[in-house]
Prior knowledge:
The structure holds two protein chains of two kinds.
Chain A: H1 14-19, H2 28-43, H3 56-59, H4 99-118, H5 148-154, H6 158-164, H7 191-198, H8 232-243, H9 248-294, H10 338-346, H11 350-363, H12 366-369, H13 376-379, H14 386-391, H15 398-409, H16 417-421, H17 437-452, E1 462-469, E2 474-481, H18 487-496, E3 508-515
Antiparallel strand pairs in A: 1-2, 1-3
Helix pairs in contact in A: 8-9, 10-15, 17-18
Chain B: H1 5-13, H2 17-39, H3 42-58, H4 69-87, H5 103-106, H6 116-135, H7 138-149, H8 154-161, H9 165-185
Helix pairs in contact in B: 1-2, 2-3, 2-4, 3-4, 4-8, 6-9, 7-9, 8-9
Amino acid sequence: MSETRGKSQGRVNLDAALREWPSAEKPQKDWEDRAQSVVDRLRRGERGATVAYVADAELLADPLGQTPEDGHNSAGAGGSVIHPPGAKKGSGTPMTMTADRERDRRSLKDLAKMASGLTPPPPSVGSMPSGVMRAAEAKADDSGIVDLAAAAAADPGAAARAQSTPLASHGLFDDEPVSQRPPMSGPISAAPMSGPLSQPAPVSGPASAHGLPQQPVPSVPPPPVLTPSAPPVGLAPSSVASVHPMPAKKKGSGATIALVVGGLVALSAAAAGTFLYMKSQATSPASEPVAMATTQPATPAAATPDPTPAATTTTAEAKPVDEITPTPATEPSLDPNALPAAAPPSKTTAKNATSKAVARASTSTPTKAQEPAPAPKEEAPPKLTEKDLVGSAPSDPAGDLGTAMKKVVGDEPEKTPAAATTSPKIPTGNVPQKPSQGAVTGALGAVLPQARACLGPDDPISRASVVFSSDGTVQRVKVSGGAVGKPAEACIKNALMKAKLQPFAEPTYTANITVRHP
Amino acid sequence: MTPTDRDLVDRARSGDTDAFGELVRRHQQRIHRLAVHMLRDRAEAEDVTQETFIRAFRALARFDGRSEPYTWLYRITINLSLNRIRSRKTARADHDTDDPRLDGVLVDSKPETGDPAARAQRQQLYTALAAGIDQLSETLRTTLILVCIDGRSHEDAAAILGAPEGTIAWRVHEARRKLKEFMQARGFDLEGDGT
Lengths: 518, 195
């Protein structure tokens, strides 16, 4: 204790005071008795009073691994375990990233999965003609910059040949015997630019490419999205044929290349078409009925029924919308005449009605779909906006839509009105299956500052599970972590309940969020 | 030849409770002191101390031997203490007059001097230190107790808490800085910068 206060100035030495913190001394017999008590308990087979609520894994886990409180940048350096207060601890296996980083990585993984499923494959850049034929010894680190001066120096006669040949680009090979010309696999359209540069390093290619039968370029089916500016197809064969008297190899390779390029373009077009088709499949079946019910209810052309029968619509992707939209002709319980009469009294928008119907459809089974459903009027939400009223304004007699339906789908046996109300629902087009990650992030980010403000500087972080209902509002919020049981819990809940998303198809969507003091 | 802690652990693994009893005798005072500073409650500290050894004995099979046995015991103590703190319904009052951490100060058997004024100053100092430590967060407080009060090295503290040594150093620095500000705000003149 002599160091606790400075000798000369009477100042407090903080380190010494802490280090020499006095502890109450007990007789040695007391310690011995306590130790013996432990041994006795062990011999009696006691397992400890905390076994019931502190598992071994939690007991031996890292108590205070790196937490968000640690302000220095050492995350992952030592492989610390992240156990936010209140969070369930796992085993002592170290983690090498913070909990937030792990969450972000999962999120990115999800985004990548979503992107791979929704976007068409990118075009194969590497197979496209570059315009410049690279030498065989060109390496990966080659910058690709063409030194025209060096090329001219390497071939002094190039300028003269360029003047004497119709196409200077193809005159490169004129001074060589045809039999000695190296096989070329590059795109023929690239030859004009690459000729002088590729002379020092003849381009080698697979011999099999030259064995392909020549096919006229026009035989290549033009892809639907081919633009007139696509150069390789038309240019290469004509130029080759006009310049070279015996361009068998070059011509053959050109045709092959043209075929390859054409094929690639066709594949790209097919991929784009597939993507557009898939996209239209996901959106058009829903948008058509909505448009019919709101803007053009009597237009027969718009009454395109969804061919999907109701008996198979068990997933959220095929959600019936019986209140507003006509049902497929193949559905036995269809009654088109009853539909227009059902829609106007609902006084609701297609958006609202379809979202509700979608929510119901996602949880209903085909058997349930055939049961009598409550009238749409009863299901209509009481709140209506001006926009809603405009969108749902009934403008045509009730029988027009049914007539139009009959014209389109043909005669159909009359069905009972009750069956019509339970007919299969067509998926809505303007309601996504589930909210996008960005939308969720934005919605939660808007209310997160309020939630963070509920925590004090020393409060441990908390986690909240926000459950959105299909109409985009927050259904419930579950808070876990340090704020549980404290006033901050209600504060966080109130803040997060204000989050709002666009309506989506799934019944609920749950997002987890970490709340810490700002 | 005195058996090492590892020897005692090895024997205890085979069911030798006497060997484990020896381990208890060696470390129970430190464990108890740590529990007192963590929990600030005598009864709870007693319970946690005994529970530490009971649970440690039952979990001996999971002791991988990569660290010293006492660091393993420290970890169990801290986990049990934190669990108990978090399960408390209300936070403990900062100015608890019956603070077990001050037992050694109030009944110091070896006073520095016979001067009552010096003893009073000393009590004020540790009372203020205890209050300052209570102001720290759970993480900073636990790290400060381990390193500055119990004298564990950064390496040991890192092994006990499961955090990198750099993090331990940062926590100690931060805890001392805050504690210094707290003490200076109460009129204590600290030697050096205190950080």
